[in-house]
Structures
1.
Amino acid sequence: VFDEVCDVTGITLKRFMSEVVLLNPELGELGTLFGAIDTACKAISNLVKRSQLPSSETLGYQGEVNIQGEDQKKLDVITNDLLKRALRFTGRLGVLASEEEDEPLDLISSLPNEAIFSDTEKYVCVFDPLDGSSNVDAGIPTGTIIGIYEHDETCAIDFDDCTDDECSEQEAQCLANTLQAGNNLVAAAYCLYSSSTFLVLTLGAGTYGFTLDENLGEFILSHPAMKIPETSSIISMNEANTFMWDQPLQDTVMKWKRGEGKSGNSFSSRYIGSMVGDVHRTLLYGGIFGYPSDTKNPNGKLRLLYEGAPMSFIVEQAGGLATTGKQRVMEITPDYVHQRVPIILGSKNDVQEVIDAYENAS
Ligand code: AHM
Ligand code: MG
């Protein structure tokens, strides 16, 4: 189905999605969501580009701290609002969760005209609106990460038919349904704001990359059916933490540096410190990207729901692997929205070497 869609050049994201929907009518609502993502990514790309101009209203900090104790930049707040609005008014979302929101939001009850949107809240969307935003001041790449799950439709609450307590209990249960394992993702995407603006997505049948043509104002399919090299020679992790990592990972990385790993390749380091940029390079050139467990942060740094799981889905759909070292990232169900997860993802053979090292050590 996807091969047929891609059998022509010069395909815009809009056309790609409408052909996907023509061939798979059950994905119609997903087409609408990607329309919103298309627009939001272009708008965020413009905001990021203009953010350092003295006249920009997005410079500096908001003066708020998010639930994870991080200072929110004005850009974090503005991009969160932008994405929230774009997705919410598709009318196709029941629940939304974001790095910049303390708790998941029930969107339907907050819409101005519930009648228009009733029965269409098919999806749950999780996102990090601007990952790596601390890099923006230095012109370093940043990105948006998005995951889409199916919404539990039994969650449509009839507020006329329950007491206040019953309604809030049902609502809490619905919001808890946001917390699904990556295995349940129906789509994932990231937008990378860099020398070009890229949008890379998977609908569960391969990974497809689009590049923004600024003259047309459209994302154009530039990387059909992306395939990550199976073996590589790039390490992309914060190596200042090396001596706090688990021993099997330390040993494997030391072997790679000496050219004594399974591939025999001598590895180089490439680390931007901005997940979307590092994962994009890993998809194209191969290698290992990771934020693993260490003695200070046993669960690493990255968040499972809206960073780890969507990126793992995209990488796996391009033929790569994503693990904590001990478990496939896609199999973990989060207990809470902002839960962290150790992550090591990238070229199949290199990630497998890490998994084997953990297994041999256990
Ligand atoms: P953020 O979600 O607060 O922006 O932080 C996430 C970023 C990732 O993009 C990147 O992989 C990681 O933090 C880098 O962390 P470190 O500076 O510790 O290497
Ligand atoms: Mg982030």
2.
Amino acid sequence: MPDVELFEMGPRDGLQNEKRLIPAADKIALVDLLSRAGFRRIEVTSFVSPKWVPQMADAAEVLGGIARAPGVRYAALTPNLTGYEGARAARADEVAVFASASEGFSKANLNATIEESLDRFVPIMQQAATEGVPVRGYVSVVTDCPFDGPTPPANVARVASRLFAMGCYEISLGDTIGQGRPETIDAMLAAVLDEVPAERLAGHYHDTAGRALGNIDASLARGIRVFDAAVGGLGGCPYAPGAAGNVATEKVAAHLAGQGFDPGLDMDILREAAAFARALRATGETA
Ligand code: HMG
Ligand code: MG
């Protein structure tokens, strides 16, 4: 039985940041490869405004084209009810709402204050509860914000607690710009754990500064056992051009295995998927 879980983010968090336009068929091929690796959850795409994120404009086509493996839940990001309805029409198994711990990032990412964004999630939560659809919640910029500077841990705890109270089954804590350090991650977790138990939390660490593995170790010490990662280290940060993206799944899997954890993944398929992901980056057409 796996004792840690990696939630694969590459097709969504990775490819949303690619400057090149990746054809839907290639995204589908990547998800199909990932479906054979042993993940229980794969974030496939997002139903957001195509004006804001043109890379995800093919969300319905991608979700509609994948070969669904038994036991795998295929997830999509949904910022509002429009997005939720699109995700459900395309048969997403679960959805995710995403909020920010800082006002600056909330405005930049959602064109809304934190409070307004939480208000928009209420109808999603209601509809999802009626339909029995699990909803995950993200909190972004949990240690550092590119607009507002260092994020006070209490602000993260407040937003995480709101999402949890609304009915999110798990709260994923995003170091969006990869500037967290084991000490700041630890301080943030200390505050969040007063509101949400460790088994309902996940770490979502970008590897911009090469500290994601250290941040994962700090989180393991606090009892966190779910981590988000992107195969091949796909992605980047729009606020730090040229920076690395999500921490690479194959790197986290090897790191965890070295500590005696078993993420339950097929390393050969992971390596194949990582090579495929890197090739996608290299050969996509210019957007
Ligand atoms: P807005 O411009 O304030 O919204 O954007 P609006 O309601 O005025 O709508 C603007 C247009 O978008 C309208 O179309 C809407 O119909 C359309 P128009 O009338 O102009 O033709 N629209 C939609 N279209 C498709 N799907 C939808 C949708 N909603 C409205 N769901 C909005 C507000 C929330 C839509 C916008 O800000 C948005 O889409 N933001 C998403 C940004 C995003 O995707 N960011 C990346 C994901 S978050 C992330 O990466 C962080 C994470 O990885 C964790 C971490 O690392 O921290 C999760
Ligand atoms: Mg992210």
3.
Amino acid sequence: MTEAELYSLYKGVYVPMHLHPPESLRYCEEFTFRPEDILIATYPKSGTTWLQEVVPLMLSEGDLTPVLTVPNWDRVPWLDEHRAILLNLEQRASPRVFATHFHHHMMNQSYFKIKPRVLYVLRNPKDVFTSSYHYYGMASYLVNPGTQDEFMEKFLDGNVMFGSWFDHVKGWINAEEQESILFIFYEEMIADLKGSVEKIAKFLGKSLSPDVTEKIADHCVFKNMKQNKMSNFSLVPEEYMDQKKSEFLRKGIAGDWKNLFTEAQEQRFDAAYKEKMKDVTFKFMWD
Ligand code: A3P
């Protein structure tokens, strides 16, 4: 199926129709934030699921019950997806935790008024591409990626779900409300998960004992999290995600692009990156 058949354009950005029907986008547009809310914002395949595990564990002070009993999409719902309407989010106690793949400019009026806390996760775009390439090949609600070369052109042009990685990142790093946003790199979580948990906890004003921090980091390492059926998407029917083709929690490493890219693809990607990011002064971990 084609982009025209599977995606709709919302605020100029492709969103998968199946997950974001018009009534869900309307609900999200009218949603009222609270100052205590925590929003995990990401370009898809940057580490959303990882944060959907880490943050609830911080709030439960290391009690594993919420992550072992509630699927990640209800535990930390995507505000813009179809389930949000069903979850009675208005009745949830603070601090509520949500996820979104929206670009900064797609956020609603309440967001800009209330300025809730945001955890924005960044990942090397070559690894985002690599993870996406496998994911688009197994998820039926997305357009089949075609060849790597074809998918690379679409990715670089932003003709994929949630549009351009470059615009997404530039929008959030240039947000005016910098004091309410914590930028976290997927790569720093890989290098030092315990340190990342401490950094996130500090930003959220949560003091965790060394034992609890250790417990959270231990549960959230890839091999342990992969076993959690509330987080590994094994509850999703195969007709939507065929994990026999590629698992959702696939490799969980930094630098897997090196196993996928040809030399020509690396050069093509680097040239596009250089051009599109030429005015950006933000320091990325992969530069
Ligand atoms: P890979 O496909 O490279 O393995 P998102 O949740 O934003 O869709 O991102 C999915 C990517 O994050 C996948 O990358 C997935 O394996 C990785 N991921 C999820 N949990 C992880 C963890 N605990 N440790 C490392 N990577 C993780």
